[in-house]
Each structure stands twice: as structure tokens, then as C-alpha cells.
## 1
Amino acid sequence: MPPAPRTPAIRPVDPRRVRSALTAEWRALVAFIDGLDTARRAEPSGLEGWDIGDLIGHIATGVSAVPRWTSAPEPAGPPLTVGQWAAGVAAGAPAIAEIAHEMSAAGRTPADYLDQAVRAVEATPENRLCATRVGPMRAADMLVTRLIEAVVHADDLERATGAAFPHDRQALAVVTRVLADVLAVRVPGHAVEVRIPPFAVVQCVTGPKHTRGTPPNVVETDPRTWLRLSTGRLTWEDAVDSGAVRASGERADLTGWLPLLG
């Protein structure tokens, strides 16, 4: 049985879970990258214009940002939500790429910043405002965005290297649920049930609401496929054709609402 459908809201995640999951995923990233032959850094990453070294540099940037953002003076203005962050990720792509290239050229890796970042994660009050690249965010929400990026880019490394990445289970669960909630908030309704076992189920899309039994429009996939759909690494058509997504019902087509990070 899938879990009960979630309401259309990006619900707060227990900050203790986020801190624990983020630290564990960062440590897994450091171990995975340290185990790669340095010659592989020149290989394509699967992301346009980036080799694996650039991807590693970008991950290092994400780790180094946490102690920088949490130690800067608190900014003014209303804090952005995780949903607002998700909608605006693509706007900073050129600047992000430039920094990734610089970090790669300097040979920086997440290991260079891990200890300082972990201390910042553990010490920062959840309600503290942080001056992030996209604007003010509460520390609790900012750390959720760092967790999303860590899990997404760990998956990028898995695809680029062909080696299975050992995600922290809690990290994968939190990110899967948050991205499912982003869809439910962005496309509210009850006509389609999206199942991502064992971590999430949401209802979305306007239309007839089912009240009992199996709903007429169902989408089901696994967490890794959901990550790739949410970030545009995988198209809906390719996912359906390969069997990675099982969709039934005339409304069970999410093409128009993916990717979610844009």
C-alpha cells in the first residue's frame, strides 16, 4: 500500500532530519569523489558544457556556500520559500557555470569545505535568515535546498560515472517528498495520483476527484527517475517508453509541468 496522499503544500521537514541527511549525503559525496580516478574528471558529465571536474567543482561550491551564508549578516526582506527557490533555479545558470569552471580549474572538491560546512549546519539556528544567492532564506529552508542539490548532483555523478551512488536513505526520502510536494503545489487538484514508493504520493491536476478504489489517473515511478524528471535530466516520453514511469488514464501525462526546477 502506498502512503496516504499528501496535501498540496510543501510541508516543513524536521530540521534535525535535514541536518542529519545533509551531513550524511555530503560525506557520501566526499567518499565517492575521493574514490574516482582524477583522470575521469575530464570526461563528460552529461550536463551541457560541463565535464565531471566541473560537476565536482559545483558540488564543492554548494558545500562551501553554507558556512558563508550562515556567517554573513542577516539580510532584510521577506524570506523566500523552497517553492520559490525551485522556480528560480535556472535564472542563475550562467553564474553557476562560471563558478563551477573556476572551482574545477582550482582543483577544489567538497572535501576542502566539509568540516566547516558541517559545523555550520549543526550550529545555525533554524530561523536565522541567510543571504543566499537567490535572496533571503530561513536557515531551515536553505538547508533543504542544499539537500536537494546534494542528492541531485550525486545522481548526476552516478549517471556520469556509471557507478551506483550510495545515497543516504533519509536524504533520498526527504528530497523525493519535497519535489513531489512542489508538483502538488504548482499543479493543484485531485485528478492524478503520483506515486513514488516508498517515499511519497501526491494528488495534482484539476479534474474529477476519485473517492474510492484505484483512481482513474495514476503515475508511478521510482525515486531516482523522479529526481531525473524533476530536474530535466530525463524527458517524460523517454521515461514512459523505457518503463521507468507507468502512467494510466487520459490525464496521466505530466509533460507540461516538468521539470520542476526551473
Note: The chain has a mean pLDDT of 92.
## 2
Amino acid sequence: MIGDNTPFAISDLLDEQDWSEFEQSYYSSGRPPYAPRCMAGLILYAIIHGVSSLRAIERMARIDLGCMWVSGGIFPDHANIGRFIIRHEKALNGSFFESLTQSVINRTGSHNHAVAGDGTLIEAACSNYNLIKEEAAVLPLRMARLHSKKRPMMNS
């Protein structure tokens, strides 16, 4: 859509956040993970656009220019997106959400004692996030079942 500055606004808000809580959970050796700012941006952008499936987020990262801008051009697969959500669930629901909300309040000039929004939009976004979170939680179980089916049975 021409004139849609949503990706720029989301990027600016994400740039204002402290990512140290996310980064502390990764090892200093091995292959570097996707940057938490990029992964959170990808998920946030998807939720804002009503996307509620890990595979759809994966697809969106590859074809939506606004999404590419927000996520820094990363193309994680659905399993990596799910693992990120599971690994950082506490931060995403707690400190990050509070910090992001505070950034929105500051940017809009609102006061934290009088913040309101369209309840249906907020409910829809929360519903999409809960669907994504549920899918992320089920993914390791599916992978484990698939992996166990591939193993040959050993007779004792």
C-alpha cells in the first residue's frame, strides 16, 4: 500500500528497545542466532497484519517488503520462529511488552494513566499471538514424534 509507513514506525520502536535480556540467553560460541530485534520485529509485524501461523510468518518474511524492512531481511524457517517464541516467552509477555508499550506511549504523547485502543484490534492481535505461541509450543512435540518414527526399533 502506497504511503504505509508502518514498517518504519515499527523499526523505530524496536530500535528503542533494550535487547540484552534476549541476548543473555544465547551461548557465546557456535553459530550466531538471528538477532532478537529482527526476530521480534518479524513476529510483531506479522501479528499487526493478522498473520497467525508460523509457516505464514516464514512466507511473509520472504515476500513482504515491509516485513523485510522490519526484520532486517532475515528468512528464518517456521521452526526457528517457534523456538524463538518459546525461548523468550517470558520476556515477550513481560518486560519487552511493557517497554514497547511505553515507547508507543512516549511516541504518541499519551499518558500511561489514560491509554485506550480499539478493543477489537487489541483482542485480535492477542488472539493471533496466542495462536502463534500455541503452534510454537506444539512444534517441538511434532518434531520429536517425527524423529522417533525415523529411528529403527532395537530389540533387546
Note: The chain has one domain: 6-24+32-150.
## 3
Amino acid sequence: MSSGAVNMIGFILLGVGLTRLFPHFWVWVKKQKIVRVYEERHNDFESLLCRYNPYFKSLDRPGRERFLRRVLLFMEMKKFEYIDLEPQETMPLLVSAAAVQLTFGLEHFLLDHFHTIYIIKDKYRYGLYNMPFEGHVSEDGIYLSWAHFIREFDDYSDGQNVGLHEMAHALTYVNFTVQDGRDNTFYQHFNDFS
């Protein structure tokens, strides 16, 4: 075999190796960012979560730390798109907290299939439906009306919460439709829970 062929094979093997290592490196970079953000901002974020999320507020210190770290990871792994409103720092934090609240006991909590979360100013029309939507889940993302999301977290006693509702749809979609990031414990015990 010529030295050119050996070099080409070596180059291909290096490329394959780097391709396999890159996702692991990327996750490591994201985790380092989360550690840094947690150290710098955990007091600010904890204050916001205590104000808006009664579930978070009810947790003990270790539970709050675990919850906030999951929220930061969820936020880092998702892209947030804002429709007809200006982004605010609280938006991805509180939406991510709704997802983490719903999946807090699960090992796989990132709702891996969904890469984008759309935050819309208010109710909206979707498809051929006549009635306005406060949120929905489709193959391409999770959609939430910010006006309803924030109002329903302000009044936690009325049994309505579009954030938790849509995250529940996303969780069932991930576990039963696409099975991308499925949590086996949730999948196996869903009928018992239902």
C-alpha cells in the first residue's frame, strides 16, 4: 500500500474518531457553561423560581439545587423563539422550570425530540381550528402563549397551567410517538399512573 493510501486511511479514521468525539465534547462544554452559570446566578434564578413556581419553593435545599441544575441544562439544550414579543430572561427560565417540574422524578427529562420552544405573546390560531390556542405540541416544537403561561403560574390554585399541560403533551409525544429520549420507567409505569 502506498504512503498516500495509508495517509488517506489515517485521515479518514481521524475524521470518524473526531465525529464520534465531538458530541461528547459539545456536551462537556455545555455542562461547564451550566456549572459557571449556576455559580454566578443561582441566587437570582432561585429568587425568580420561588416567586413564580410554588413547586420549586416547596423543595428542600438539595431538591432546589438539583431542580435548578436541571432547569439550566434544559435551557441550554433548547432554542427559544419569541413570536410578537420581546424576549426576557425570565421566559426560558420559567418555561424550562415547567418542563423540569413535570419530569423531576425521571432520569430522561430533556424531552430530547423537541429542539425549539416557541413563546407567543398571546392566544393564537392554529391549523383549521376555529378556537384560539393557548399552547400546543407538534412535531416541530412546543408552543406556549406567554400571557397565559405567566398568568396561570401566578394563580396556581385554579387547576389550569398551560406550561405543565403542554409539557405533559411533549412528554407523552417523546415516550409514545417518537421515542426519542424515552424514559423507560415512565414508559413502563404510564398505565399504572393513568
Note: The radius of gyration is 20 Å.
